[in-house]
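Re: PPS structure - here you go.
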Amino acid sequence: MQTENTVWHPHLVTKADRARLKKQRPCLLWYTGLSGSGKSTVANAVDDLLFERKCHTYLLDGDNVRHGLNGDLGFSDEDRIENIRRISQVSKLFVDAGLIVSTAFISPFQSDRDMARNLLDDGEFIEIFIDTPIEICEQRDPKGLYKKARAGEIQDFTGIDSGYDIPHQPEIHVKTAEQDIRACAEQIVDYLITNGYVNQ
Ligand SMILES: Nc1ncnc2c1ncn2[C@@H]1O[C@H](COP(=O)(O)OS(=O)(=O)O)[C@@H](OP(=O)(O)O)[C@H]1O
Ligand SMILES: Nc1ncnc2c1ncn2[C@@H]1O[C@H](COP(=O)(O)OP(=O)(O)O)[C@@H](O)[C@H]1O
């Protein structure tokens, strides 16, 4: 989508300039997984480890963004697509600002995750599959939402009566049922160090 009669204005200070100043390689850590899989928990733990390493980061989290920017959207397929479209565009701006950005949204459709990937330059989009069996998510049920969905009090609930596409080829595959929160976070930070996004 492009608005008529507007012209893109090039900036004097570029993304590369901002990255050099911050001594890091800007990127987007795109967490995806079921409700209760551990997206927010792991993303927060990674953000904390990166902050300790003096990285410049920003975390966009599902529930929080739905309180503000996307407060007008629900959970139909169309609204989820629009949710991810807006988040992708906002994330692109934050990456352009030189930050290591994390997004923690269910983002159930592969086509939308691919759309977000294609907005960014090569190597900037890191898809992180928070892979937790639905039985475990349901046992955890940190917000009591599975209980409500099973009771028919919430419609279109991901994994119950709304779909989730398993990521095809995520850069990072995290199994939260097999390792603790700290180990999950370290797995991701190790990837960022090994691949030159942050310094050793
Ligand atoms: N119907 C239904 N399905 C799934 N999730 C629901 C629903 N209703 C409310 N919630 C709460 O909203 C959070 C998911 O929002 P997202 O923006 O991440 O969803 S999506 O990416 O647009 O699919 C999700 O947060 P997380 O549990 O952190 O994933 C829930 O707390
Ligand atoms: N290894 C783990 N990684 C992430 N979360 C875990 C792990 N083990 C247990 N949990 C718990 O699972 C729940 C995940 O909730 P949350 O992070 O809100 O998930 P999501 O953001 O995907 O909905 C939290 O209560 C967290 O403490």
